[in-house]
Amino acid sequence: LTRHSAAGRALAAELSTALGPLSPGAxxxxxxxxxxxEELFFRGALQPRVGLWLASALFALAHLLPSWPLALWSAxxxxxxxxxxxxxxxxxxxxxxxxxxxxxxxxxxRWLAKRPPGSTGPGI
Length: 124
Description:
Blueprint: H1 6-19, H2 24-50, H3 52-62, H4 71-91, H5 95-114
Helix pairs in contact: 1-5, 2-3, 2-4, 2-5, 3-4, 4-5
C-alpha cells in the first residue's frame, strides 16, 4: 500500500515517526510481545467465546488510531485478524497464528524502523 496509495504512505510515515529508531533487539522483543500477547487474548480467549468475526472486529478496534489517515491501520488489522483467526480455527491451536503474527510484526517493525521519520516516499 505504501507504493501505490497516498493513504499507505501517510500511514507508514505516521507509524515510523511514532516508533522512532528501534534496535534489532527492540524489534524482536516488540514483535514477540505483541504477537504472542495479542494472539493469546484475541484468538485464545475471545474467539472461542465471541466467534471469528467479532474477535477480528475487536482486534481492529484495538488498533484504531486517532487520525483519519491512520484508519487504514484498523482495516489492515481486521483483515489480519480474520486470517489469524482462520489459522487458529484451521489448526486448532495458537502456534500458527502466533507465529504468523510475530513474523508480520517483525517484518513491519523492522521496515518502519528503517524509514526516515516522517518520510512519505515509498520506503525501503
